[in-house]
Amino acid sequence: MTTIDLKPLKEFLETKDGLPYIHRDISWLSFNYRVLQEAMDSSVPLLDRLKFLAIYSSNLDEYFKVRMAYHRHLVRVSKSTKQELEYDPKSAIKEIRRIVNLQQEVFSKVFDQMIIPELKDQKIFLLRRLDLNDEQQIFVEAYFKDNMLPYVQPVLLHQKRIRPFLNNAALYLTLWLKPIENPNAPDEYALVKMPSDQLPRFIHLPTSAPGRQDMIMLDDIVRHSVSWMFPGYAIEDTYSIKLTRDAELYIDDEFSGDLLQKIRSSLTKRQVGSTSRFVYDRDMPLAMLDVLKEVFGLEKYDTLREGRYHNNFDFFKFPDFGLNHLKNPELPTLACKLLENEENDLFAKITEKDRLLNFPYQSYDAVIRFFEDAAKDPLVTHIKITQYRVAKKSQILQALMDAVENGKQVSIFIEVKARFDEEANLSWGEKLKKAGVHVHYSFPGVKVHAKLGLVRRMEKDGPALYSYLSTGNFHEDTAKVYSDFGFFTKDIRLTSEVARIFTFLETVKMPQQEFKHFMVGQFNLRSGIEKLIDYEIAQAKKGKPANIIIKINSIQDRPMVQKLYEASRAGVKIQMIVRGICSVVPGIKGYSENIKAISIVDRYLEHARVFIFHHGGEQKVYLSSADWMTRNLSFRVETAFPIYDPEVKRDILDYINIQLSDNVKARVLDKHLLNERNKVAGDFPCRSQIDTYYMVKRKMEESEK
């Protein structure tokens, strides 16, 4: 398998206090390389490998819009501010560029040397303009004139006179021109917009061979046709470019003024932000690149080499031609009849015992039903919910509006600072407010990331509270591809604290009582986790069993990293499942000998957060919305809630143990960042997501007997 050197510079492994630590952005690039590794894995079905190329590209685009823009911002801050940083932003930018350039070379090799030949084996041909036969050339020329001509916007480039504005993330073709009548004249250059935002990126071509599929990318249709737009010039060559702009709104730390208005104003500026990345075809001559840098006012660190094509996230839309054998076999979503069947009283089933759902293996319909039933149940008086990201056509939010019509008191807390969902959240807020829902918006300086739902119901014994808690968003669409836990409970120990969290969100007044069961960001989340780790440390020092299992998306917070090292040195056995950023460096003598970490990248996005502590044999289990990032632990309202039901606790432990045993899709996280396959004792293959599906299915069948 192809590998590349991802070993970071020394300064990214050691902080000023000598603590082994991998910079978050270097670790993130290693995560994205794990995505790329799936694209080069021949055991992954071919069309799914194309999907992983799309995921890699989409991830990297967002990374440069936000993280690289952040580093560039830090380069411009004062010297005194820079001295407070724990790393040099210029060095970070240099190292990021080095790694991304190497990854892009691998990306091109995977696409050109692996994917394209295998597509040909399946009689799928992605043609370039010189590959076209006469019939296809006629088709391409007609398609260009009929569909593309109004959008291409040709313009000659003059370094000192004409500086066209490049749209954010749009595709352009740059042309190297020579005047036909004066071949000794200086070379000229031009720019043409490729209308991939208006038209499909992949175009079917006519073909006479049975069973053969001929395709061409929109880019190559433009390449074939641009000569018509520049009469009097010979086109020496063409090269693709793309500019990504800073997409950060820089409002997270705002404490004054009208926050909603600031967000609305910032959204209009996102498409005209400063440059965060200028990508160009690596075959472009340096002289031409120099001209483009001058025309567009680019600096050295703005530019990055890529292959012939950009915006490769468009591979999400690559046609499958009905060839299902080139994709992962379907895993039909498992309907939870106990909670979804209309014959069953959902609230009665939650009253019987706590209920756990494991998405996307199980259907999300029970969650939708919870809110729809609450909306029409005459015994329900109040419904409350938090919103971070939701589906465009949200059945849950529609249920809230229906509930208002049915006379319920409904309130929602909307976090409008959810990156890239700000506009959608503002729109939903206005719609809900018009429908009569009590809408509460973001706090200045703090994001609300907790996933909470609460229903108040008048029953014969008095008012009763029901809660739905989750590690993921109230989002019907992502619930089909994100691996998350959902949890229904009527346990008063939990529901009463959920009610106190909502009171805080609605009044911004500090709760008078401490949280005894929940760990809540802004109150006791960080201290609660540290207390649980300290207990394991004390147990280990007494020679007693002590272990911790952590499943999260990311860990970057330095004090928490240091706390885990302290636990490891004391003899606590720590197992980590980290999808993305992992600043912890496992296996370092004197720091982390007792820490092992893996990452799982497969058909579903691992998104659940689970914290498990041995705790003297009591085994405390928490589900959470919070990663162990400084932003989550210190600057967000997050929740970690305990699991008290023995059956639910056992199920969660079973699912986590499957992931720890994964030797097919799990990769080892260590100081070398090579993402090697996880080796587990025994030779029986364990692919955790597939094995989890069948375990969930078996447990459901047993519970429904």
UniProtKB/TrEMBL annotation:
Swiss-Prot/TrEMBL GO biological process terms? polyphosphate biosynthetic process
Q: Where is the signal peptide?
A: none
This protein's record includes keyword DNA repair: no
> Which stretches make up the Polyphosphate kinase N-terminal domain?
21-126
Catalytic activity of the protein: [phosphate](n) + ATP = [phosphate](n+1) + ADP
InterPro entries, sorted: PP_kinase, PP_kinase_C_1, PP_kinase_middle, PP_kinase_middle_dom_sf, PPK_C_dom2, PPK_N_dom, PPK_N_dom_sf
Q: Which purpose does this protein serve, as stated in its record?
A: Catalyzes the reversible transfer of the terminal phosphate of ATP to form a long-chain polyphosphate (polyP).
Name recorded for this polypeptide: Polyphosphate kinase
Q: Which organism is it from?
A: Haliscomenobacter hydrossis (strain ATCC 27775 / DSM 1100 / LMG 10767 / O)
Gene name for this UniProt entry? ppk
